[in-house]
Amino acid sequence: MLVFSTLSAPRQRLTRRPRQRPAAPEPGPAAVASSRVTVIDADSPLPDARAARAWLSAAGEPQLSAHLGVLEWVLHALRVSTADPDVRAPAREQLLIARVGYGEGEQVADGRWLAARELSAPVPRRRRARLLEPQARLAAALARRSPPLICEDLALRARVDLDHGRERAAALQLRIAVEAALAQLHVDMAPDMAERIAQLERQQQAVSAAARAALSGELDAGEREAVAVALTRLEAALRARAAAQ
User: Fold this and answer.
1) Range of 136's domain?
2) Looking at the structure, do residues 207 and 182 belong to the same domain, yes or no?
3) Residues 142, 234: one domain?
4) Number of other residues whose CB lies within 10 A of the CB of residue 173
5) What is the mean pLDDT of residues 61-75?
6) Number of alpha carbons in the 13 Å side-chain half-sphere of residue 165
7) Is the pLDDT of residue 161 over 80?
8) Are 37 and 109 in contact, with CB atoms under 8 Å apart?
């Protein structure tokens, strides 16, 4: 069960015509509404208070990740149903507050509980050089020295689909991503890229076969593996290109 609610903020009066008002020289932060999403596992009720306390003591990021998967699935259905491409599920690091807890009946539907814990977002440990790489790439892109490749955006879309269990969409997205990568990486050849490009060329036929299969039904185990391997190799090739630059 999924419950959406909006936490209040000062209402703005809507008018037929846009209103223009003087702005303060140094305005403070504006109050905004925030959304609260409660995922309730109604299929697995806890039998008693002791079991509930034991569950809460062990609950953490795995449970939160599973619930975020439910939210992503629902919002994906909403995105398609409303034909609104801007509907997106938040990533873990975008959550203002994350909690796991338990309660009774309508209590949890209202975002309340008998007991709960807040989860602090994990901070991945990365070397300073790795932290600076995206900043350097962004600076190069903004200066138009190294604009992003089309295949990079396509690969990101394929990764989102694959990570959220949409293998058919991932296969179709990856087919054009690999085709674009082979065209663009050949033109913009970076050092030590020849072998990576050759690996992609060897994967292209399997990816195309998986994409054709995706048009008529679900992928089998071999086709899913082909998509996962090819996408991993494409991402590795794009990282190598970025590092070389």
Assistant:
1) 128-244
2) yes
3) yes
4) 24
5) 90
6) 7
7) yes
8) no
For residue 135, being part of any structural domain is answered with yes
In a domain, residue 138? The reply is yes
The answer to whether residues 82 and 138 belong to one domain is: no
Judge whether 185 lies within some domain: yes
Question: Which tokens go with 224?
Answer: 């899913």
Q: How far is CA 41 from CA 86, 106, 123, 172, 174, in A?
A: 28, 13, 27, 33, 34
pLDDT tens readout for residues 110-126: 878 899 999 987 776 66
- Could you tell me which of 139, 62, 55, 134 has the C-alpha nearest to residue 102? 55
Provide the whole-model pTM.
0.74
> Would you state the structure tokens that stand for residue 168, as one six-digit string?
């058919």
* Same domain for 196 and 133: yes
Q: Give the per-residue pLDDT at 166.
A: 93
Domain boundary (77, 95, 118) is at 118
Tokens 């504006």 belong to which residue? 30
- Tens of pLDDT, residues 186-229: 765 665 778 888 889 999 999 999 999 999 999 999 999 999 99
Q: How many domains does the chain have?
A: 2
Tell me the pLDDT tens digit for each residue of 16-44. 666 777 777 877 777 777 888 888 888 88
> Is residue 99, in this structure, part of any structural domain at all?
yes
Average pLDDT, the chain: 84
CB 194 within 8 A of CB 182: no
**3 CB contacts (<8 Å, ≥6 apart)?**
37, 38, 40, 109, 111
HSE at residue 231, side-chain half, CA atoms within 13 A, is 27
In this structure, the answer to whether residues 83 and 153 fall within a common structural domain is no
Torsion sign, CA atoms 137, 140, 145, 151: positive
